[in-house]
TrEMBL record:
The keyword Cell membrane applies. Residues 19-501 form the Major facilitator superfamily (MFS) profile domain. It is a multi-pass membrane protein. It is found in: Cell membrane. One of its GO terms (molecular function) is transmembrane transporter activity. The keyword Transport applies. Keywords: Cell membrane, Membrane, Transmembrane, Transmembrane helix, Transport. This is EmrB/QacA subfamily drug resistance transporter. It comes from the Bacteria.
């Protein structure tokens, strides 16, 4: 399935180019949907009459569903064929995008986002596999480079497109814009890619492993999402969910290690280079995504930014990352990738420390500078990481290792979103109480009273200032924790042995 047969000769150069552009576009759409909803959460929450905390379920439900589906991709492709799976996933993605846009309740939009995530999961690895089958070896590097650019461009464009649509049209359109792209991809897959379909064979599926995977991830994510509203472990429901998630996780590990055809091949963790690499990836993506979730909400709810301008601040990271991609690829051939990754991750930690000093008086460019400088580090950690992790496993384990890498990255994003918003909310309450206990507002009240404000107006004015300052202090605390995690991740890179030889990264999703 990696493109070892001469399947590329079945298409003309023009057909190959069209198919390649369509595959890159499909990947862009799926990656875009991971971040496009972030800046729109306040709009969606206001429209559906829910809290911004509940609105974040729209982000986590998509990420968790995608994480659950990724391990199934290899089995689906072998059972039904790569082109059929890709086409079916695009059809499902289009249908659930339409239903997300038509949603009128929180339950409906979360259910449809789960459907979107389940269908979106296979699209990224399937598009990569098809690129390897469509293009001859000498053109694959260039096409995979274009494909990788869409993976970086998606998170950049998501906040801007989502913000612009939410401000000028309606949040429903952040989902409706997927429909024409999905339609073009379905047509192109049917018309162009049928000749490069893979052979199929009946394979046993590990239903018990799949059920356990869905069970423990589901329990964990529900616990993280509703814990904030239920006072965490003071509520018996949260305790039960935590115990069930823990037991489910342990049973899942035991089952997968003893199953002949596991749904997730956990044996790849015996390679130290792979384990240190993917845990570094999980920590980095978790810390990185913390800012993608928290910054747009703070800018809109506390700083008076529109969704569009909040999107611009968030997007600068991915924009500068695009500029650094060619340099990262060049340096990889000359320098030990562990050095590149360690410096890049530590650099991201320094940027997090910079953001930990933001205040409510920060202007637009003060907010943008750490975002801009962080972007230069992103390709130097993302691109070498694939080489480091996949060079640590046997060639026969590459597909399983790549699937696990993507699974852990997606789970890190989902868990990070819940944990960060919890820490932010708790930090706001603590900061507010501390400020309220030491506040000497007598002089301020006298001045405001002299300017003609009533006692109630004065109370609300002071309360809003305290709330705004508590929000930014709590956010700075989250960034400080992110900095520590990133420095730990930078050190973890060195647990991996130096990668040797060339790696076939075609299975990396």
């Amino acid at each position: 399935m990696g493109g070892s047969e001469n399947t590329f000769s079945l298409l003309s150069p023009r057909q190959r180019l069209l198919a390649g552009l369509v595959l890159a576009m499909s990947n862009f759409m799926v990656v875009l949907d991971l971040t496009i909803a972030n800046v729109s959460v306040p709009h969606i929450a206001g429209n559906l009459g829910i809290t911004p905390d509940q609105g974040t379920w729209i982000i986590t439900s998509y990420a968790v569903a995608e994480a659950i589906c990724v391990p199934l991709t290899g089995w689906l492709a072998q059972r039904f064929g790569v082109v059929r799976v890709f086409t079916a996933a695009m059809i499902g993605f289009g249908i659930f995008s339409l239903l997300c846009g038509l949603s009128v309740t929180l339950g409906m939009i979360v259910a449809c986002r789960i459907g979107q995530g389940l269908c979106g999961g296979p699209i990224m690895p399937m598009s990569q596999t098809l690129l390897m089958r469509i293009f001859p070896p000498e053109q694959r590097g260039k096409m995979m480079g274009i494909w990788a650019m869409t993976t970086l461009l998606g998170p950049a464009m998501g906040p801007i497109i989502g913000g612009y649509i939410s401000d000028n049209w309606s949040w429903h359109w952040i989902f409706f814009i997927n429909l024409p792209i999905a339609f073009v991809c379905i047509l192109a897959a049917t018309a162009l890619m049928t000749p490069v379909e893979t052979e199929t064979k009946k394979l046993p599926i590990d239903f018990a492993g799949l059920a356990l995977l869905v069970f423990w991830i589901g329990c964990l994510q529900i616990m993280l999402d509703i814990g904030r509203d239920h006072d965490w472990f003071a509520d018996p429901l949260i305790v039960v969910l935590a115990i069930l998630a823990g037991i489910g996780f342990l049973v899942f590990i035991i089952w997968e290690l003893t199953e002949e055809h596991p749904i997730v091949d956990l044996r790849v963790f015996r390679h130290v280079g792979f384990s240190s690499g993917v845990f570094t990836l999980a920590l980095c993506f978790g810390a990185y995504f913390a800012s993608i979730v928290i910054v747009p909400q703070w800018l809109q709810l506390s700083m008076g930014y529109t969704a569009t301008w909040a999107g611009f601040v968030t997007a600068f990271t991915a924009m500068t990352a695009l500029l650094a991609v060619p340099f990262a690829a060049r340096w990889m051939a000359r320098v030990d990738v562990r050095i590149l990754m360690s410096i890049a991750v530590a650099w991201m930690g320094i940027m997090s420390f910079w953001r930990a000093h933001w205040t409510s008086g920060a202007d637009f460019w003060t907010l943008c500078y750490p975002q801009i400088f962080q972007g230069f580090a992103m390709p130097f950690f993302m691109i070498p990481l694939t080489t480091l992790t996949l060079s640590a496993v046997r060639p026969s384990e590459t597909a399983s290792a790549a699937g696990m890498q993507n699974f852990l990255r997606t789970m890190a994003i989902a868990i990070s979103t819940s944990v960060v918003l919890t820490a932010w909310g708790d930090g706001q309450r603590v900061s507010r109480n501390e400020m309220a206990s030491v506040l000497q507002a007598g002089d301020t009240q006298a001045q405001l009273s002299a300017s003609g404000m009533s006692a109630e107006q004065i109370r609300q004015f002071i309360s809003s200032i305290v709330d705004r300052e508590a929000t930014v202090i709590a956010m700075d605390y989250v960034f400080f924790i992110s900095m520590i995690l990133l420095f730990v991740a930078a050190a973890m890179v060195w647990l991996a042995p130096k990668p040797t030889g060339k790696v076939d990264t075609s299975a990396a999703h």
